[in-house]
Every structure is written in C-alpha cells, then in structure tokens.
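Researcher: For the record, we're logging two predictions in this thread. I'll number them. Prediction 1 follows.
Model: Prediction 1, sequence and structure:
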Amino acid sequence: MIQFSLLKLRFLLFFFLANSFLNAQEKDSIIRKVESPVFVSTLKDLNNSSPAVQAIAGLLQSSRDVFTNTAAFNFGVARFKIRGYNSNQTTIMINGIPMNDLESGNGTWYKWGGLNDVTRYAESKRWLGSNPYHFGGIGGYSNIDATPTNIRKGHQISYGITNRSYRHRLMYTFSSGVLANKWAFAGSVSARYAQEGYVKGTFYQAAGYYFAGEKQINEKHGIHFSVMGAPSYRGGQGLAVQEIYDLTDDPYYNANWGYQSLPNGEKVKRNARTSSSHMPIITLSHEWKLKNEAKLNTSVYTTFGKYRRSSLNWNDANDPRPDYYRYLPSYFENVNDPISAGVYRELWENNPAGRQIQWDNLYAANVKNLYSQENVDGIAGNTVIGNRSKYIVENRWNNSINYGVNTKYDKKITDKTKFTVGAFYQYQRNHYYKTIEDLLGGDFWLDVDRFAAQVGVDPAIQQNNLATPNHLVKVGEKFDYDYYVYNHKTTAFGQFDFMLNKMDAYAALELSHTNFYREGLNQNGKFPEDSKGDSEKSNFVNYAIKSGLTYKLSGRQFVTVNAVVKSQAPYSRDAFVSPRTRDYLVDGLENEFIYSGDISYLLRYPKLKMRFTLYHTQRKNAVWSRSFYNDAYNNFVNYSMTGVDYLHQGIEFGLEGNITTKLQGNLVVAHAQHLYTSRPTANVYVDNSAASLDQDKTIYLKNYKVGGMPQSAFSVGLKYNGKKYWFAGVNYNYYANIYLDPNPDRRTAEAVENFVTSDPQWDEVLDQTKLKDGYSVSAFIGKSFKIKDKFLAISANLNNITNNQSFQTGGYEQLRFESQSINKFPPRLAYMYGFNYFITAKLRF
C-alpha cells in the first residue's frame, strides 16, 4: 500500500511539472496576440527482462517502447513527428555506418525500401541517450544490423495484399546460419506492385535485393559485407485546394494525370509526375577483438545511383496543369466574370475527364507549331526548321555518389565501465541536371529561360548555356541547368559509460568539420561570371556534448535524465540562393546551435510498464530556404531566412498492462508546443536578376506554430491473446492542434501595411491556418500455425475502419501571396485515406 502511494505521488508530481512546463506563450505578430498550440503523442514500452541488471541502453530501446511504436504505426496517418523533429535530427545507420544524406541531413529509407525482413529489427532509440555507434542526433538513432547472423536461420516467403500505395508485395528471405567453414550468408528479394494505387492516376513498381556474407576468420578477426538496393518507379499524387475537393467531391483528387489516346484509339491514364530511383549500398566491415576486452571495428562503404522526378514544362503556351488557379470558378468570381465562373463550375462538376491533364491537346499544340530557329548552337547561318515543342515532359535528376570510412574502438575498462571512441569521414557528390523525357510530338525544345524571355531582356541573358546558345534539345539530352554540389564531413567522438548499483551514466563529446561547395558545368547567360566553375568553399567546425544518467529507485522504477549542447553546420541544400543558376551563398550563413534535455520516469513490472517523459529543445540560428513562382514578378523567387529559432517542448506518456491474463491495454498521450521563437531576417531574390527584391526583411514568426503535424495526439487500445496462437486488437486515435506551416511573407509589416488593425483582413492575413481535430480507428488480427517444422503466420492490419474521409491531415500554406487578394492562393490540403488494409501471410521453413 505504501509502495502504491509513493508511485501515485511520483506520477502526480510529474504531471504537475508537465503542466507548469507547458505554460501558454504569446505569439508574435505586428500588434496582437494569438493562441499557442498543444500536442500529444504515444509510447511503446519495454520488455520483461530483469531491470535490476539492465543498463541504460537496454532500458531505453524504443523498439520495445509503447509510445514510439504507437507514434510510428497509429499516428503515422496524421503525419505525426516524435518531438516535432524532422528526420535530419535522427541518425540512421546500417551496420553502424551513418546513412543520412549530407546535403539535407534527412534519412534515406527509400534506398532500402521493401527489405522488411532485413530492416524490421533495427536497434532504435528515438530520444536522447547513450549511443554505442555514433554521437547521434537529438532525435536518437536507428541502426540496421545487416549482418547475416542477425537474420533467423532458414527460409521465409511472404505475400501481402493491400489497397494503399501498392497492391501486392512478395518477399523471400534466407539465412544459412554459421556454416562449418565459419562463413554465414543471407539474402532477401522483394517486389511491390500496383497498376493503380489508392489515389487515381498513381502506380507503383518497386523491387528490393540484399545479399550479405560474414566470416569468422579466427578468434580475433571477423569480416562481413553486404549489398542492398531498392529500384523503384512510381506515379505521384499532388495536393489541391479545398475548392477543387468540393467541386469534384473527391478528397483524393490528383491533378497529375490525364487520358492519352494511343494510335489504336485506346485511351490510357498517364501521370506527368513520376519518380524513379536506384541507389545501391555496399558495405565492408572488419572486426578485431583486441586484448583485455577491447574491440576495433572498421568499415568502408559506398552508395551511388540516380534519382529522377518528371514534370511538365512549357514555353509560349497556356499552363497545362488542370488545377491552375486561373481555371477555377473562384478566379472568375474574383474578377467579376460570373458567366465564365459558371462555365468552369460546370466543367469541374460534370466533366471528370476535363479535370485532368489534356495530353491529346498538348500533342496537337506541338505538332502544329512549325518554327524556324536561326543561329542554332551559336553558329551563324545554322537554321533549323521543325515543330518546336510548346509542351514537354522533363526529367529532373539528382544523382549522387557517396563513400566513407569509419572506425570505432570499444574498451571495457572494468565490469562497470566502458570507453568508446570513433572517427568518420564521409563524402557526397550530388549531380543536378535536366533532360527531356518526351517532346510530346514536337521535334525539339529551345533551351532558353522562358521567364527571362517574357520580361524582354537581352537575348544573351536568356541562354541557359552560353557555350551553345539557341540549342535545340532532343529526347534524353541535357538542358537548362547542370551542376554538382560537393559535401565533405569529418567527425570524431568519444563516449564513457559506467554502471553502479543504483545508477548508470554516460558522457559523450563530438567534434566535426563540414565543407561544401558548388561546381557549375554551364555558363548561364544571366550570371556569366558566377555560374560556371567552383564556388566559394564553405567550412564549419562544430562540437557537441551530451550526458545522462539512469537512477534506479528500485528494481522496477527508474528516473533518467539527459542533456545535450551542440552546434551544427547549415546544410548545403539551404546554403545557396539559387544553385540552378549561380553560386551565391545565403547571407549570414552560420552554425546552428541546439540545446536539448529530457527527464523520464519508468515503471517495469511484469504486467505493467510505463514511461513518462518531459523534454525541452531549443534550436537557434537555423536557415530556411525555398523557391516558388511569384506572379507579381512573373518569375521564380528564391526566399531565404536566417536566424530561425525553434522551440520543441512537451510530454510523452505510454502505459501498457495486462487487464486479465488474456487481455492487454495500452494508453499513449503526447502533449507539446512546437513553436518558432524568433523574428528571422529574410532576403528575397529573383532568378533573372542579381538584384534582391528584399534585403534584411523582418519576419514576425515568433510564437507561430511549427506546422505539418498534430501537436496533440492520443491513443487507447486493447489487445486480446487467444488460445492456439491467435490475437486481435483495436486502437482509437485522436489528433488535435494541427497547423499548416506559416508562409513567412504573410507575417511581415508590408503584408498588412494597407490595413488598419480593426480591419478583419488584418487578422485574416496574419492568422495561421489551423485544421480541425480528427480521429482514426484501427484494428489488427492474426494467427500462427506450426506444421511439423514449418511456421505459418497470417495477419491483417485494418486502418480507418470507420472510413473517416473528412480528416485533413496536413498540407501547406502556399508561398504565393497577394495582400490585395488574400484568398487568391488558399492552402493546399491533404486528407486521411479512407478504409485501408494490409493482409499478409508468412511461411518460415
């Protein structure tokens, strides 16, 4: 009874601290206050191993944490982010080798997509803590052990059927186990396919492959290698404004496709926004067991390949996108043309084919556009006559080569102390360029900047490459831009872990150097002196320090505390003003600083597990860069902000326990504030000119919400384990406080300079878009069979079983904005999929 009272007292104390911690904050605007946001998450809990002998790393492994699992599986439909972090705050590794993209810091899961049997048991810790491989990010780490001995010996074949992005998945995996010659081998192949996915006009074709070998040479030396890849080809979907969803009565309207006529008269669906990628990963590692329980691991790796996205492009022609704002009834209503508004409303509501891309019309425009181009490739008198394409499908390429080496030394000093040091070198080169995929019936495409041409500038300035002016591009040839971005990163870290009877603790230090630059391959007519050759080389030196401890209140109760201070170099993707055309760097490029900490209370009883966490993170001096089309300038605009500060603070609560011997319940809650906490400085440039549109412009972002995710989430679930290895469960999930990320240009003094504070449009300009709260109900069921020495498992995951199609899960405020017509560019929105399922059968033998 006394123990229960102490538990209750500690639990209430944590909730009291949480409410104090998450006090309301004022939001920045030019004059008035705005409400602040709140957020909720989930946790998944720990295993039943004896906590008395568990070290901190085992205690906090998130693959057994009810909060993390619920956030990944149940909250994913609402785009929930643990602690509000993007993937660049989590270190993703294969065999202890960092795999994050150097240019953006993001995770690169698409490189091994579909290899579930290899990646499903990754060691993960999605918060601060000790890391046995790397210093890690504030979002923790996830390490995929791709060695053959990590995969269960035998064969496994599985088939899945679903109605999501793809329809069918087939997978085969084998592992030899350790053979008599001390070798072990494993492999896996998979295929995923859909002629059309959940959203109309999309398709999915993907494969995956993995092969690895491991050799124990002797008692001291072992080697292992792995090769994996995941080629894919997909048809994309896009987001639309609410007006279109209302007109079509379809929350999953996709503007990226249309019907195209074949020579035999058949009409087929064609998607203009396709993507493909294939980037194999090759690793080779050596493990050396030294004297006195020391170990040295050294690895080399490379990953290389191509990533492509297609898109429509046009010149001297009307916009071919069916969801272009000038094709909507609201546009004509705003210009007082009710007759045209009625015509377009009729088209949208009653002519489904007319809502999509009119491929046949694009072909017709191209084959009738006879054109005579003089001085082709800059050669006087070189005249070519043919059908100049007004419309094309272009491919935008981002091909990369990565390689690196890392080495890590572990030394067990005593039974209770361990020391780890490591060093990493990483290199990445990204190659950006365009090619023509389809001339759509034309003979060639003229390689000039259509935006420069539209404003009547010097013809030389229109040239994308002065070496070949007036170049006529054919299918497969490069055009427009062509450049490399290089990244080099060198890192060294050290970590000390020790365990006492009542406490485990660690401390870690990291030092790093980052270097990046651009190399232009074309001499652009707009920037002849700043487009070709190497740019200025940017160098940043950074440090990071973290520490933490786990205090054992008893064999079943623990308190953990972690803290980190780190500096971080800006990512090269955000550092250049417009790398497509020139090598200018964003003004005021400096290191970002991060301060983060968390405190947790854990219970680990055989039939009851719980984690309650408070966390607080501040990010200072981040860079924010975007490019978008601005109607006022009839051109693309490059918009960069420096001095962007963020605050992420909140609570995470996960509870899992047995209600009866067969029935288990879980409860997950997350509540947080993810805010902008500064007034950044913006510089705005047009692609056609070196002159800036705005310099040192103040953006009033302070206390606006970081958008794109629920800032509150809640889940409650039940699971029943029946006799003879069958199980079933259900979860109710609720999502609240969902905001779209604010368009910075609407949060400026200039945006409201024509309004008085009492004008309703004042608030309309400044208010952040908030979406309605939503919910989902999911269920799962499965059964296992043992047939002699074979094992068969069948399971089904059923999502959104109430078919709730009214829940807006996210989107974005358009960066295009006109203060004189506030609603001209409303936000684009995404809706949660209706009822969807994944049914799979596995046979292991």
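Researcher: Logged. Prediction 2.
Model: Prediction 2, sequence and structure:
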Amino acid sequence: MTTSLKLNIPTVAPRGSPAFAQALKACCAITAFQADQVQFCKSTDAAVSLEAPKEGVKIVDINAIVRYLGRVGGAGFKAERAPDDAWIEWEELVLRPRISELETVLDLAEKLLGKSGITAAVSPAQIILFSTLYDSTAGASPSILDKHPLLKTWLRKTLDSEWAIEGIQKAATMTTVAPVDNSSSKAVKGAVGTAEKVAKKPVVVGTVADRKVEGGIEMKVYGDGEKILPVPGQRNILITSALPYVNNVPHLGNIIGSVLSADVYSRYCKARNYNCLYVCGTDEYGTATETKALEEKVTPRELCDKYNALHQAVYKWFNIGFDHFGRTTTPEQTEIAQDIFLKLHKNGYLSEDSITQLYCEEHNGFLADRYVEGTCPKCGYDDARGDQCDKCGTLLDPMELLKPRCKLDNSTPIVRPTKHIYLELGKLQPKEEEWFNKSATEGAWARNGKMITESWLKEGLQKRAITRDLSWGTPLPKEGFEDYQKKVLYVWFDACIGYVSITATYTKEWERWWKDPENVRLYQFMGKDNVPFHSVIFPSSQLGTGDKWTMVNHISTTEYLQYEGGKFSKSRNVGVFGNNAEETGIPPDVWRFYLLSSRPETGDTQFIWRDFIYKNNSELLARLGNFVNRLVKFAIAKYEGLVPDYATAGSDPAFDGFKADVNKLLKEYVEELEAVHIRAGTESLMHVAQRGNQFIQDNKLDNSTFAAEPAKTAAVVGLGLNLIYLLSALSYPYMPGTAESIARQLNAPLRRIPDTWEMDLKVGHRIGAAEYLFSMIDLKKEGEWQSKYGGDKKTEEALKVVEKKKKADKKAKRKEAVGKKGEGSAAASGGAVPN
C-alpha cells in the first residue's frame, strides 16, 4: 500500500477547461475512495499529475490516476464500490482515446445505462464520466441532456452523492474557477478534449474578487498594533472579568463564571461595531501566591510566570478574545495603587490601628489570612480560609476562625499585637450607597449582585485593614509610611486596581478609558463570591480619591457550576479543568456553547456529560450544522456555488412572513444581549436556526422541487443563504470558530449584527466550499469521560435537577411574557397594571 502520494493540481483551471475537468476527476476519486494519504500541491502545469515516490512512478494521464486512486484508496469507501465486472463497458468507453464530441459521449453513455441499469455503486469509470459530464454540460443548453433522460436522471442522482458534492467543493477550492458563458456553445463543444475560452474573468474562490455583498456590513477589525480607544459621542464599552489567581488551573466553573461570559459580551459589542475594550490578567500578589510558591518550592515570581502562561494557554484554546491579557506584578500597578492609597490618606479615609494577629512561633512570622485555616464560625466548615469560607461564602477575619492552624506547618498559632492601615469604609458609605442605588438601577445589575451589595450596606460598612505582613505584594509608599516598609497592600484592596494597571500596560492613554465616566460604560463579570470587592470596596476606593473615575455600570455575576452532582476538585481528580477540555478532542465551540447555555445565572447549575452530548447532537449538529451544510451543498451542486436569483422572494406572502419571523427573533436576540442575558442569547440563536430549518422543510427543498419550481427554489436557496450569513453573526459571540467557518463557506467577510435582517448576499455572489460545523458524539463517550474525570456518580439525580431548573425557567419566562403583555395593554389603555 502506498502511504504517501503527491497530487499536483493546476492553479489556473477555469471552469469548463480540460484542467478543471481533470482536477474534478482527481478530487472526486480522492473523496470516493478515501485516499487520505494524498497530499495536494499547487502546480503551474496545465494538467493534473500524480507522484508515487515509493513506487518511483509519475502518472500524467488523469483517467489512469483515477484508476490508481481506486486501487490504493483507504480501507473503507465513502460509497459502495462497484464489482470489477459491473462497469467493463463503461471502462471501455471512458478509458478509450478521447472522444471530442459531447453528443457522441452522451449517446454511448445512454445506451450503456439502459443496458446495465442505474446503481449507487461507484467505480473509477463512473467518476470519470460524471466529472466529464458535470463540467462539459454546465454551460450547455438544457435540451442537450433532455435528449438523454436516463443519463439526466443518473447525473442528478449522482450529484446528490457525498463523494460528488465534496469532490466539486475540493476542485473549486483548489483551482481558479469562473462562471460559464451560457451564451457560447463552445463551452460544451470540445470540453472533453480541447481547451476553449469560456471564462471572461477568472476569480479565485475565497477572495473578494467575486464577492457581491452589501456594503457596510462588515464587522470592524482592528489592525496589528492599532489601539482600541473610546470615541466621544459613540458607544464605548470597557469590559473586565475577575482576575484569576495564579495558584491553580482554572476549571469549567471558573471559566464560565468570568472570562467566557465576558468574552461573549465583548464579542457581541464588537459585532455591533461598538468601541469595546476587554482586559483581563492574572492576579499575582498576595498570600495565595506565597503559599503556593512555598508548596512548589519556587519563588513567587517563578510561580507567577508559570501560571500566567498556563492560564493564557487555556484561554487561548477556549478562544477567549482578550484585547489585552496582563498581570498585576508591574510598575504600573505599583504606581496607580500607591496613587490611590495616598489620595485616600490625604482625604482622611485611612487610619492606623494596632491589632492582635495570629503569629506562628514555628517559623517566626505573622500569618496573613490565607496562611490560616480552621473551622468557620458561621457554618462549621472545618476547612475555611482565614479570609473567606468557601462553603458558605462568608468573609472572615483569621481571628474569627475556630481551631486555627498554620497552613505552612500545621502548628497552632498564638496571638500578638501588630499595626496596620485601615480603609474607613464607614465614612465612605454615604457616597457608596448613593452611587450604588443609581448604578444598579441604571445599569440593571444582575439580581444576585444587587442583593449581595444591599446586604453589605444594610449591615453597615466597617473599616477594614488594607495592609498585610508579606514580602510579595505592592509596597506601600515610602514617604510618610516608613514604619510600614515590611508590609504590602492587602490583595483584596489591590486586586481590582489591577484592571486599571493592566489597561495602562496596554495603552499610555489608559485614562481615556478609566477617567471618563460620561463617555465610557464599564461592565464587569465575576462569580458571586467576588461581588463585594467590585461593588463595595473598589468603588468606595475610587470615590474616596476624589478623582473622576469610570465606575462600574453593570455587574454580571454567576452562581456555581457543579460537576455531575458534586464539586470540582483538583486534588480528588473530580471535574474537567481547562487543560482537560482539549484532551477530549471536542472543539472549543462545543464547550463554549454548552457552558454558556448552562450558565448559572439565577442558581447553581450542573455540568453533566449526557447533557453535553445531547446539546451537541440534538442542537448544534441537528439544528444549526445540518441547516448550514444542507443549503451550502445544495447551492454548490445545483447553482455552481452562485447565489441564485431570489427575486420572486419579494412577491410571495409566505416569504414575507418568514422574513418577519426572523426579524422578530433577531430583535429578541439583540434585546437579550444588550441586557447581558448571556444564557438567553443561546436560546434565541437556536430559535433562528430552527426557523431556518422549518423554512426549507415547508418549501420542500429537494431535487424534485428544483426541477418543478425553479423560481421558487432559487428564492428559497437565496433567502436561506442570507439567513446563514445572519446566523454567522449571531453565532460569533458564542462560537467564533463556527462564525468564521460559515463566513468562509459563504466567501464573505465576518459581518456585524444588524438591527434588521436584509439580503446582504447578492444574486451572483460566489460562495466557497462546504465545511462540517459539528460532528456526532457517540453516547458511549459518557461513561468513558465519567471514568476519566471522576465525579460523585449522581448523574440521574443531577439530570432531574437540570430538568426541574429548565421547567422553572420556562415558567418564569411565560410569567414575564404575560406581565409584559399586561403592561403593554395597560399602557395602551391608560390604566394601571393589576397586581
């Protein structure tokens, strides 16, 4: 068996030329016989040639190449292979010296078909004859094939076969193609043996040369080195996602809780052509870093470098489109944090106090919060940290812990006095409260973000220490704080300033983003445990400086994503972590869609393998993937890859109803995303795809309709292709790789999300080659993945929770819809809405 073949394809092969017919034969043979070992190579020669280095031969006769590929193809065939003696007479016909007259070829083929019958089996002879007829009859008068009805039936049937469709796509992609000049009979005559000039203007598929698309639809793309900056009078959106610590590998819950959710909104804003900057980075200072560095026996800097690179690799695989991903251990962080600190001191919002703090006699040092573990005084959890209980979420002081222990050596610490600097949050509460009430209302914060903040304010803000006894952190300013040079800024005060300093490492004009509240809207994404730092402490610090800061306009928060009925745990090998997702071989877009469609917005949600597989197979593949693939292949097979004339779409009331439905769904999608309803957007996206499926089913898009109602079929295909183009834009925030694939298939630029759906692909626009968007996942994978990634084996129970949650969400939506309808009726009548 030959293991490596080199197929040389001419780069100049206009549609209707002998070179294109040869390329088509070769591509169909490779597809039909699964000759995956063949390597395509561009060639300046006028004919296709095949090199078989192992056998030391070079084949230049295209029919011989097809027969050779049939002999050395892969172990299986995409089509049933014809018996060796079934097509002997076909072999005699197609392999004899070339017949230049098409009529003679058709007559002979018709007689042989009548004698041997039509079969789905494939042979080299069939591939050769099909390619010859497809290429040579493309520009011919329909009457030529009408004289040979049996052959016409065979050709149409073969056009529907997978190997023929993929072969045509490959040939179109590999070569230079051009529309056939239908006015010239020369396009038919001699197509088998002599070259004729049938192309007025050859174009390369995949370039802009043959694009007929509406102007101004492109999504704005920034060039290399071009900085994204706000523009006065335009929509300017600044987006941040909670900065991940550099002491772990992010799991799926971490990813959906911050960076992925923020990425969706960032991509949505960019697809609307807003000026949008998305920044993130690793949170590198603090006790957590020092502790992990001690565990791994490296310096804190070495640890930060390691995990910064690890996080970036994970996010890159998930296709998180940061405009800038930085880190907090920078000179910019020191400068900006110290400036905020000094302004708070100047304005009377800092104080000094002596406190008692836990001290470890074993290694002679005061213990910062995360160096202390013990029992939570609120819920009794015996593995609470000194700053927070992971079980109940309560923020703690190490002195509050029951049975405290040193994390480094497990010894029992003692209490000693020490001095720290405090932020007087109580003094800042009136300013904070006034700002919060305005921002949470105007920015329509997520419900849990509002509730957590309200609970803090209701209890009354207390002063909190903003220094710690550590060596790894932002140093305090020297002037006036000489007695504190062995202390650093506490990470909960310091971390949110990282958003500002990371922006400063992106552009020296960072203040245009961070000190222009009239012109910039700030959106921040995080898990619920991070809310107080973003809604109370950081805003209070901004207000206390007296500077004119851009402050958060909308806080988008999530609850927790559980894994198969339990918790993610790296130590117990339970759950999928960022680097595990790639190991499964499932593309990033499938992971993104599933996580976003399960986003824990109003309560905890479950990651369940069975549900993951279902989402891929029944939604992504069945609704979106099949819709796109079916229409693109149909357009390539029936219309030579050109958008057909859909003029009749304007005169059919059914088509008007379809367009109205799509525009209604588009409006709902935009409204959901503008309100940062991330999960609801996935539902709106699939509703649009499903409406497209219903459209082609209602209009019975198939070969018989194509023959009986050509004008209607052209309208259906034209509208369908334009809907696919819209779907590429709606998919972009959630599945950017899918959006890019659709754009390639349509040979069109990435487009913006419009307010109204229009026909942006014009008649005559040449599309590209078809690609599969999604693949079926075998249900057997559920057990394999459960075994590999652990779990509490509570899948059935977790599934019930998921179904219960889905029903509750549907009920809430119906209630909301009824409420909106009632409000509309009341407003129209001037009456009040009943309770």
